[in-house]
Amino acid sequence: MNLDTSATHEIQHDISSIPGKTQSAPCWSVAEVLALLNAPFNDLIYRAHTVHRQYHDPNGVQLSTLISVKTGGCPEDCGYCPQAARYHTDVENQAMLSVDEVVTAAAAAKANGATRFCMGAAWRGPKQRDIEKMTEMIRAVKSLGMETCATLGLLKPGQAQQLGAAGLDYYNHNLDTAPEFYEEIITTRQYQDRLDTLQEVRGAGINVCCGGIVGMGEMREARAGLIAQLANLEPYPESVPINHLVQVEGTPLYGTAALDPLEFVRTIAAARITMPKAMVRLSAGRQEMSEAVQALCFLAGANSIFYGDKLLTTGNPETDRDQVLMKKLGLHALP
After folding, report:
1. Burial class (CB in 10 A: 0-12, 13-18, 19+), 14
2. Most Cβ neighbours (<10 Å): which of 3, 19, 229, 231?
3. Residue ranges per structural domain of the chain
4. 311 strand-pairing partners
5. Mean pLDDT across the chain, nearest whole number?
6. Residues with catalytic annotation?
7. Among candidates 113, 81, 94, 51, which has minimal Cα distance to 306?
8. Do the bridges between strand 304-306 and strand 279-282 make them parallel or antiparallel, or are there none, so unpaired?
9. Residue in 175, 259, 173 with CA at minimum distance from that of residue 214
């Protein structure tokens, strides 16, 4: 269990004195977020659920489906990613899907209850010809009446405007981890590169989907640093995916000590408290989570999931399994 408690024993565990923050007035220090994470579990979950009820339907879950429109061959060295060309994994390079293939997948996702369709591509960043193909896909998926999201890597000036003009609703670009831990995970792009892309997205009037990954060997202070970084974006992201590392053989992070499941729940709770209006998405890693852990995540403020049997290249709970769990918990899909 990766808990950085030795360096934080002086942080107060009473979280009731931590002032509430709003989207128009961020400023969450790492110490404040760390105090949340260090709090007694019941106190933390109670506060997170209370905040959740203030801003959201407590039993509503937004359903998204994610597909890979271009797989493998990425030149980056993200230590968690099986699509990096330099790592020897079972992921095979695949050319970009056709618009018809994407529309077929989106229609199937809609039929299964998904309201948002997310398209991902394994690039450092798209070329202009890629943007032109993506805008076709975005328009086609929008014509089905679905929200659209894309995750295409680093954007050059002007590219976000083209995606927005095509009707893109959300752009996903995760920070992955805290700035201080970032170089342990990736060296081929800088933290500022990610922030610059987020600024391009904001400037184009597109909603931001931005979160990170936990369980990569980081200490609790790094998880606090990630949440603080996200919460202090102005404004903070409309959608915040919290991913649990899915270990893939052949990647540098394969064999990393497993994160305690309750630490993941704590991270969800901290995201909800610090970004009260955001949709907090329970993302990668759900396939390895028990129903009880997922239920705690929903209690702690998660209200969005990826829905379907695959996330880009890694597994995800099957649709039927999710429907059974939602029925058990009395949850319903948000329109």
Report:
1. exposed
2. 231
3. 28-329
4. 314
5. 89
6. 74, 78, 81, 118, 149, 209, 281
7. 113
8. parallel
9. 259
Would you call 168 helix, strand, or coil by DSSP? Answer: coil
What are 209-251's pLDDT values in tens digits?
999 999 999 999 999 999 999 999 999 999 999 999 999 999 9
Contact 180, 222 (CB under 8 A): yes
* CATH number of this structure's domain 28-329: 3.20.20.70
Confidence of residue 199 (pLDDT cuts 50, 70, 90): very high
Q: pTM of this prediction?
A: 0.88
- The b/e string for 293-320 (b: 16+ C-beta within 10 A; e otherwise) is bbbbbbbbbbbbbbbbeebbbbebbebe
Q: Is the dihedral of CA 201, 207, 208, 209 positive or negative?
A: negative
Q: What is the DSSP letter of 236?
A: P
Question: Radius of gyration over alpha carbons of the chain, in Å?
Answer: 19
